[in-house]
Amino acid sequence: MTVKLMQHQLTRRQILGVVALQTAAASGLTRIGLQAASAAEPAAVDHAPAIVIGSGYGGAVAALRLGQAGIRTIVLEMGRLWNTPGSDGKVFCSTAAPDQRSMWFRKRTEAPLATFLWLDLVNRDISRYPGVLDRVRFANMSVFVGRGVGGGSLVNGGMAVTPLQSYFAEQFPTVDVNEMYGTYFPRARSVLGVNDVDPAWFESTEWYQFTRVSRKHAQNTGLRTRFVPNVYDFGYMQREAAGTATRSALAQEVIYGNNHGKRSLDKTYLASALGTGNVTIHTLEKVRQIDRAADGSYVLTADRIDATGTVVETKQYSCTYLFLGGGSLGTTELLVRARETGTLPALDASVGSGWGTNGNVMLGRANHLWDTVGANQSTMPVMGIDDWANTANPVFAEIAPLPTGLEHWVSLYLAITKNPQRASFSYDSGTGGVRLGWTAAQSAVSVSMAKKLFDRINSANSTIYRYDLFGSSNKVFADDFTYHPLGGCVLGRATDNYGRVKGYSKLYVTDGSLVPGSIGVNPFVTITALAERTMARVLAEDTAP
Ligand code: FAE
């Protein structure tokens, strides 16, 4: 069941939460909550019954459900709050004109699609700032993640896809699929505000011509396509197209944030969490260490940074219940470090393993001159080529936009392949960070699967690949980055069947690190639904007095 955003009414709690967010932004506060919004001097809090690390999907679900249960909760988020307009009157910059807001402490942007006609026309010099998109580089794989209140929801394409039930069951053999598909997936979709593009509008609008062309080429190959829902408000998008609303998805806004239209977590789960009055979000605070006190409470060390990245304060927090929502990279790094430096020595040996890229590969095809994709393209994908049922070569390929404002005859795709390869993180005592053991050979497995599918599509349509999009070396398949980092603290291995971390009580994982490296579709609906399942169980069983 999806809800129509046009009809979506804000609850009283969401309205209170939105007020708290606006007040914090207007006063430049790094502490956001109803108390902060109403009281002149917020009380200094270093202990809370519950702390949540990270404000992406897993963290946001934990915060809302804890707040609703009446449990005072602090959320610690290393990124900033994104609702203060810059000098151009906008909160976020567009992909066409990136500035300091685009990337996390970089001197130059590092966009996934680096070149056009082999020229670096895409990236720009910027000044260092806590921008919204980060590219975390490991030896053979870099990982794109969102930074800020809302995590990945601020930068992603909004595709809200529920995985195939049979593949979910394959990946999570110990999870009750009836409960997931009957209760937690619908709950997640409803709070996220998932909606569908109007098929009639889709068929007629210039903004999705690029998708219709790719659909035709898939059909010529005998392949199935399917619409995918999104959290971008399609009613708003139609008004953008009609010229009655300020453009966002239709103005090349996406990976550096959307100024309008997208129901990111700060507008849904987190607004409601703040609205309970029990949740406070602290921004620009990065947790670096987790200890356990003699009484069993958790003690956190967090660095508060300013807009230059300088650590201006090191803070200590303590809590009874600790929820890890730092994402696959953030949570896994914290736990691997805690185990290896001896602050949480009883963590399971599997912490740090079971990591995968969700089989991500990006590629472009060159179309015939008569197959124009359109100068105008919406940044929100709405369709995928679904060949997952092909057991010889399962692939789900998102038909991705490449909005440049010019006709370029490129069909772009983000292929999700069923790559069985997994890697582990290890602790680097020199830097205090983690290394990722992913190899180029492991990426080659994804490439060969994507290539099998797109060779068929090229052959059926007499087309070829684009060689100019991913650097100067004629690279066809971008296999060195992922948007979908998954795993590291896998459900049922590093944790029990509900995300309770093995070896420690009252310590939980609620984010993408629970997913064992692959889910076959874009992952945030799965991450949200699993977090809902964890919170329902934990609040029923663990937090009773
Ligand atoms: P995530 O959303 O990454 O949140 C983690 C949060 O924790 C972040 O805000 C971090 O800044 C913060 N954090 C990390 N470490 C610390 C620390 N030590 N102290 C304090 N804070 C910390 O995690 N998925 C889809 O389903 N559909 C899409 O269309 C889609 N498109 C994407 C496009 C792009 C460009 C990218 C980058 C991702 C896309 N994804 C998409 C992936 C999706 O955003 C991702 O799976 C989720 O955001 C992961 O959710 P988590 O809760 O695991």
UniProtKB/TrEMBL annotation:
The keyword Flavoprotein applies. It comes from the Bacteria. Gene3D superfamilies: Cholesterol Oxidase, domain 2 (3.30.410.10), FAD/NAD(P)-binding domain (3.50.50.60). It holds the Pfam family GMC_oxred_C. Its EC number is 1.1.3.6, 5.3.3.1. Keywords: Cholesterol metabolism, FAD, Flavoprotein, Isomerase, Lipid metabolism, Oxidoreductase, Steroid metabolism, Sterol metabolism. Its cofactor is FAD. Residues 146-169 form the Glucose-methanol-choline oxidoreductase N-terminal domain. Pathway: Steroid metabolism; cholesterol degradation. InterPro entries: Cholesterol_Oxidase (IPR052542), FAD/NAD-bd_sf (IPR036188), GMC_OxRdtase_N (IPR000172), GMC_OxRtase_C (IPR007867), TAT_signal (IPR006311). Belongs to the GMC oxidoreductase family. This is Cholesterol oxidase. It comes from Streptomyces xiangluensis.
